[in-house]
Every structure is written in structure tokens, then in C-alpha cells.
Design a protein that fits this description.
By secondary structure, this protein is mostly helical. It is built from 23 helices and no strands. The chain starts with 26 loop residues before the first helix and ends in a 17-residue tail after the last helix. The relative contact order is 0.20.
């Protein structure tokens, strides 16, 4: 996501001027005051060094793919699709991946047009204006606080064969380990996540091999799906049933947007951000789809497919020991996902300090880098320690369900930004450009609009509450400081 420089207009109408003072102020004095404010803001933003560009495409893909966590998506999300979609789950997943490719095209174009660690908020700010950029940041932060601890809470389930541990204790421990690792330099984290990712890929390959060597049914069930009435709610697979599963299938490979958060640490971001998005998306899709197809073919009945977990299937194919090993690989996948999320979340918070979203002391703290590792360590603690506390003490189920609606709204804003990306001077800026524009953003708007239509009223109300709080902070603070607050700017890149 790119941000326009602090002294460059965003392409939107200027901020509403403050009410006139009873004491007249000359235009020269006003301009001087604005210049002083701009210089003060620049000095504040220049107080900390920038992130180092140390990642090549391979390291960036490893980190992004780890955030997708194809193994955890395979072992946690896909069984839920089997329950509702039967043998049609792979077809539903493929349709969801096609929609994800459209979302990925938006990330790739916008992320190379405005390469910034701010991610979505920088993209929206540059294309749709300062206010919507801030709203996007607020919704992103709401997700970033909630999602990592929720994922961490799943660790206990996959350790159950070896040790019984309270889910909240395990979740808090995972968060703390991820925080400690995330403070290290980004290259070290790429190596750690890469090692864990290899174990994930091995686990997925083992499942695929076991399923394909225990085939019990014809591949025709993939094209003419069968469902289990007790779990699907109907006896036949219909287009309506497929569409009802898209909300989950769309997010099976979600996480490829992490590439945009790493934009300030990737060499040649205007080329490599797009490559990272698509390589991560396609590899993640293959790791999920192939074992899902193998599970369909390797399961004797639709009832067994719709009610069993992958651990149950593997236990039936290869025994308890193999099932336990697979569970441990999933546990590592969860730790890996939390680690990468902590990394990306810290960079968004770091970028908000650099873009002067907060009072000056807060901005200086959030942009502080570790003297040895060059990581945004204060931002890491600021966004992640609350998550550790939530994992230990809170019931996150309601908030987590609302993240689906929040993410859908963010996708809508990204699609609108992608539609605006070819206007004015932006058309001349170097960036990867999606083919068949504007097809991808139109597909995103249509599909995500349907997902929003399906959301529960409570989830929409929580999303609305986040937007209202963001609007209040903007009106009461940011709008009153148009020259020295919320000046979204991407650093120079080496493209």
C-alpha cells in the first residue's frame, strides 16, 4: 500500500477550515503557521530510522505463506466445509479461490502502487482520501488485536494426544512465544517461519498421499457432489448450497495481503509485492485443494466425510501415531501463523506512528526500532501484549465472529480503491497492473457484498461501532490537525 508523501495532496477535497477567530490573521501568518506545523511534523516523523530492505521474494513468500497457514486452513476450516458441502467442498473451495485471486489482484496493484507497511489503510488513503484511510486503519486494528489470540487458543486441541493443557494457558503461551520471536530481525523470522512451513507442507503432502492411496470412490463425485443431509440440511448439492459456502471458502487462503505489510522490507517492492501475493496465494491454494480432493476420494461414505476430522481420517488410514504427528504439525502451523501475524501487526502499528496518527510521544515510541535487530519492538509489544491478555482471560467468540464483517468492509474499500487506481497521475505511477481491469474489483464488490448481506445483525453492529469510534477520533483530533497529523507517506523504494 502506498502512501502519498506528507506534503503531497491526497486527491481529495481539503480539510474543512476551522471556524474563523474573532482576531483576524493575515494569509502570510497563516501560511507561516502551516509551514511551521509541517516542519514540526516532518521532524517528528524523521526521529526514527526506517525499516531495512532485507527480504527477497523467497523470504517474503515464506512469511506470507506462513500467514495463510495452509495446513491450519486445511485441518480446521475444510472439515467445516465437508460438513456443509459434502463432496462438493473442493468445488466450493476452488470458486472461493477464484474470488480470492480477484482480491489478490487488488492487493497486488495497490500494494505496488503505494508500497507501505501500513497495508490496507495506506492504499485506501492514497486512493479514496484521508478519512476513509483512517477508518480502514481502525477496522484493521480491530482485527489485528482479536485474530491472533483466537488462533492461538486452538493450540490446546492439537496437543491433546500428548498433554492436557487449558486452552487459555496454551493460547497465552503461544502469544508470548510469538512476541519474543517477532522482536528478532525479519530475516531470522523468515528462517523460523520457513522451517515451520516445511513441516506444514509435509503434513499436507502426507494427508494427500494417504487419501490418494486409499481411494474408495470415483472422481465423478467432485463434479456431481453428494451431501450428508444431517449436516448439510438438504439431500442434494445445489447452486444455492455452493453459494452458502463461499463466505468460508473465500477466506481459506486469506493472508496473502501480508505481502503488503512487508513492502518496506522487500527489495524492489513495486515488482516483488505482486509476485509475493500471487506465489503465496497459488501455493497455499494447492496445499489446501489437493489434500481436500484426496480426502473426498479416500473416504468411503459421505457421512464419514461430513462428520470426521482430518485426525480421524488419518487415524483410519495410517493409525494413531501418524495422526498424532499430523496434529503436532498443525500445532506448529498455529504457532507459525500467530508469529507472522504478530510481525505484520507490528508493522501496521509502526506505520501509524510514522504517519503521525497519535500524539507526538506515542508516535515517537511506536516508531522506535530495536538497536540490534532493527525491528519495531515497541509497536510489537503495543499490539500483541493485549492479545496475550485476551487469550488468557477473555471469551473472544463474539468479537471473532464480527471480524468476518469487518474484513468484508475492508475488502469493499480495497475494491473501490482499485477502481480509482487508474485516474489522474496515478495512471503514470510505476506499479503492477491487473489484467482485464476493472473485472477483479467488480467481482470482489459483488461477492463480498453478498457476504456482508449474510452477516448477522450483531456482527454488523460491532462493525458499525468500530466505524463510529474511528469517525469520532478523526473529527475530534485528526481533522483538527490537518498539517501535522495523519500524513500517510510511503518511504522511498529501490524499484
Amino acid at each position: 500500500m502506498t502512501h502519498t508523501p506528507a506534503d503531497t495532496p491526497h486527491g481529495t477535497s481539503p480539510p474543512t477550515p476551522a471556524p474563523a477567530s474573532p482576531v483576524s490573521v493575515s494569509p502570510v501568518a497563516s501560511a507561516a503557521a502551516a509551514d511551521v506545523a509541517d516542519m514540526a511534523g516532518a521532524a517528528e516523523g524523521a526521529a526514527a530510522p526506517g525499516l531495512a530492505r532485507v527480504l527477497g521474494p523467497v523470504g517474503a513468500v515464506l512469511l506470507t505463506l506462513s500467514c495463510i497457514t495452509p495446513a491450519s486452513s486445511l485441518f480446521i476450516l475444510v472439515p467445516e466445509l465437508f460438513a456443509g458441502q459434502g463432496t462438493g467442498a473442493p468445488l466450493t473451495i476452488v470458486v472461493g479461490i477464484v474470488i480470492s485471486i480477484a482480491v489478490g489482484a487488488c492487493y497486488a496493484e495497490l500494494g505496488t502502487l503505494t508500497p507501505s507497511s501500513g497495508g490496507e489503510y495506506a492504499m485506501v488513503d492514497a486512493l479514496l482520501g484521508r478519512f476513509l484511510g483512517w477508518v480502514t486503519f481502525a477496522m484493521t486494528i480491530a482485527m489485528l488485536v482479536v485474530i491472533p489470540p483466537v488462533i492461538a487458543l486452538g493450540m490446546a486441541d492439537y496437543l491433546a494426544d500428548l498433554v492436557r493443557v487449558d486452552p487459555q494457558v496454551a493460547g497465552c503461551a503461544v502469544m508470548l512465544v510469538a512476541i519474543a520471536t517477532a522482536v528478532l530481525d525479519i530475516k531470522s523470522n523468515a528462517l523460523v517461519t520457513g522451517a515451520f512451513l516445511i513441516l506444514e507442507l509435509i503434513a499436507a503432502a502426507v494427508v494427500a498421499a494417504l487419501g490418494l492411496t486409499h481411494v474408495h470412490r470415483s472422481p465423478s463425485v467432485l463434479i456431481h457432489p453428494e451431501v450428508h443431509a444431517a449436516t448439510a440440511g438438504q439431500s442434494t448439492f445445489t447452486l444455492g448450497l455452493l453459494v452458502s459456502g463461499l463466505a468460508a471458502a473465500m477466506f481459506v487462503v486469506n493472508g496473502f495481503g501480508t505481502a503488503s505489510y512487508l513492502a518496506e522490507e522487500i527489495h524492489q517492492p513495486r515488482r516483488n509485492v505482486a509476485r509475493t501475493v500471487f506465489w503465496s496465494l497459488f501455493i497455499g491454494a494447492a496445499v489446501i485443494v489437493v489434500p481436500a480432493v484426496a480426502a473426498v476420494l479416500g473416504t468411503g461414505s459421505t457421512r464419514a466425510l461430513s462428520t470426521a476430522t482430518f485426525s480421524d481420517l488419518v487415524r483410519g488410514w495410517a493409525g494413531d501415531t501418524t495422526a498424532t504427528v499430523i496434529d503436532l504439525c498443525v500445532a506448529l502451523a498455529i504457532l507459525n501463523a500467530v508469529l507472522v501475524m504478530v510481525l505484520q501487526n507490528a508493522r501496521v502499528v509502526y506505520a501509524s506512528g510514522r504517519d503521525r496518527a497519535w500524539p507526538a510521544p506515542v508516535n515517537r515510541a511506536l516508531t522506535r526500532l530495536h538497536p540490534r535487530f532493527g525491528s519495531p519492538w515497541v509497536a510489537t509489544l503495543a499490539i500483541s501484549l493485549p492479545g496475550a491478555a485476551l487469550a488468557a482471560f477473555a471469551d473472544l467468540s463474539t468479537l471473532y465472529e464480527a471480524t468476518g464483517a469487518i474484513l468484508a468492509v475492508v475488502y469493499v474499500l480495497l475494491a473501490l480503491a482499485a477502481l480509482a487506481a487508474r485516474r489522474g497521475t496515478l495512471r503514470e505511477r510505476p506499479a503492477w497492473r491487473m489484467p482485464l481491469w476493472p473485472l477483479a474489483p467488480v467481482v470482489v464488490l459483488a461477492s463480498v457484498g453478498y457476504v456482508l448481506y449474510q452477516q448477522a445483525g450483531r456482527d454488523l453492529a460491532i462493525t458499525g461501532g468500530v466505524i463510529v469510534l474511528a469517525a469520532l477520533y478523526y473529527a475530534l483530533y485528526l481533522r483538527r490537525h490537518p498539517h501535522d497529523r495523519w500524513q500517510v507517506a510511503a518511504p522511498d523504494d529501490d524499484s
